[in-house]
């Protein structure tokens, strides 16, 4: 899985950080490429990366505050100018249809690819053989969702050496063995497929919170997540401001990650008051949860099956 942070600032951009947006690439799954939120000038940020607009096939909007959606009309329109023909699905809270329809129609923008805008509520937005994608309502000034992406478990690896020792060579029979079926070999030996397959590979959980203050649902969002991406708009000394403005502090999120058995924590949506020096935020979070990352704009993280992180 590849995660690229395009914008990590809260509310208004700073010189170092643009407003919210990130890209998730599900490398194993037909190159699914998703954008989460699309603040103003997100398309400019993309110009500094190898990602092209035509590759993005789904956009998910956590909530309708301007710092999460003002980049949409321009990006949708440029995707067409650049000749993209593949469908784009845009998921967002109620009101997103009006926003897109109004901005495209009054600016006379014609889109040459199929664009479907879907207003969402809590629940599973879609699922397929590989994962399910669920929206969970959080607590913010406007309706705000977190997204929980649960990869499905996959069968363990086949013990090829053990099979070879019984004279079983690769072929269609391997598929049946992997499915755990009972099979009679040519010499009459009956083997049980399950004896040759390693333990189930647990599917990963990726959880991404929209803007929120701490609430019960955010605990549900975070539970056992391998990768948890959450806003940390404030330091804990400004806790009262975080609560008043429906945001969270780095410490609150680190405590949540710890209690929820999270493996890796990424903090974003950093207030511009700290955006050029995130050392205090990082220290505050690391004091509670050591596996904390505060990405800069345009940083890409590649996360392997064993949760090993490489920064590109
Ligand atoms: Zn925001
Ligand atoms: Zn907001």
Explained architecture:
Pfam families: Anti-Pycsar_Apyc1 (PF23023). Zinc phosphodiesterase, which displays some tRNA 3'-processing endonuclease activity. Probably involved in tRNA maturation, by removing a 3'-trailer from precursor tRNA. By secondary structure, this protein is of the alpha/beta class. It has 2 domains: 2-154 and 200-311, Ribonuclease Z/Hydroxyacylglutathione hydrolase-like (Metallo-beta-lactamase, Chain A), CATH 3.60.15.10; 160-196, no CATH class. It has 10 helices and 17 strands. It has helices at residues 42-46, 66-69, 72-81, 96-106, 160-165, 172-178, 216-222, 239-244, 250-259, 279-286, and strands spanning 2-7, 21-26, 32-36, 58-60, 88-92, 115-119, 123-127, 131-137, 145-151, 182-184, 190-192, 205-208, 227-231, 264-268, 292-293, 300-303, 309-311. The strands form 3 sheets. An 8-stranded mixed sheet has the order 6-5-4-3-2-1-16-17. It has a 7-stranded mixed sheet with strand order 7-8-9-12-13-14-15. Helix 9 runs parallel beside helix 10. Residues 10-11, 20, 65, 67-68, 211, 269 line the site of one zinc ion.
- Which molecules are bound in this entry? zinc ion
Cα-atom radius of gyration: 22 Å
- Name the shape in a single word: globular
Helical fraction equals: 10-25%
Biggest sheet strand line-up: 6-5-4-3-2-1-16-17
CATH architecture of the largest domain: 4-Layer Sandwich
Number of helices: 10
Low-confidence blocks of residues: none
Please summarize the sheet with the most strands. 8 strands, mixed
What is the residue-mean pLDDT, rounded to a whole number?
Answer: 94
How many beta-strand runs? 17
Q: Cα distance, first to last residue?
A: 13 Å
């Amino acid at each position: 899985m590849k995660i690229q942070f395009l914008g990590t600032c809260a509310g208004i951009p700073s010189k170092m950080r643009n407003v919210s947006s990130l890209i998730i690439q599900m490398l194993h799954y037909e190159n699914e490429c998703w954008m989460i939120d699309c603040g103003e000038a997100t398309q400019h940020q993309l110009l500094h990366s190898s990602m092209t607009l035509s590759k993005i096939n789904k956009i998910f909007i956590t909530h309708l505050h301007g710092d999460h959606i003002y980049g949409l009309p321009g990006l949708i329109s440029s995707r067409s100018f650049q000749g993209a023909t593949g469908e784009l699905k845009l998921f967002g809270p109620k009101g997103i249809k009006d926003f897109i329809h109004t901005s495209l129609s009054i600016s006379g923008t014609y889109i040459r690819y199929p664009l479907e805008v879907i207003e969402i509520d809590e629940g599973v937005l879609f699922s397929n053989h590989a994962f399910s994608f669920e929206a969970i309502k959080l607590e913010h000034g406007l309706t705000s969702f977190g997204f929980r992406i649960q990869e499905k478990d996959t069968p363990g690896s086949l013990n090829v050496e053990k099979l070879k020792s019984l004279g079983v060579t690769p072929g269609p029979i391997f598929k049946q063995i992997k499915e755990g079926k009972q099979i009679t070999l040519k010499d009459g030996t009956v083997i049980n497929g399950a004896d040759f397959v390693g333990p189930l590979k647990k599917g990963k959980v990726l959880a991404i919170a929209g803007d929120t203050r701490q609430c019960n649902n955010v605990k549900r969002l975070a539970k056992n997540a391998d990768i948890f991406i959450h806003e940390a708009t404030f330091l804990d000394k400004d806790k009262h401001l975080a609560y008043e403005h429906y945001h969270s502090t780095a410490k609150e999120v680190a405590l949540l990650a710890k209690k929820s058995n999270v493996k890796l924590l990424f903090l974003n949506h950093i207030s511009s008051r700290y955006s050029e020096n995130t050392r205090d935020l990082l220290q505050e979070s690391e004091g509670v949860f050591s596996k904390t990352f505060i990405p800069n704009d345009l940083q890409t993280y590649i996360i392997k099956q064993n949760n090993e992180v490489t920064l590109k």
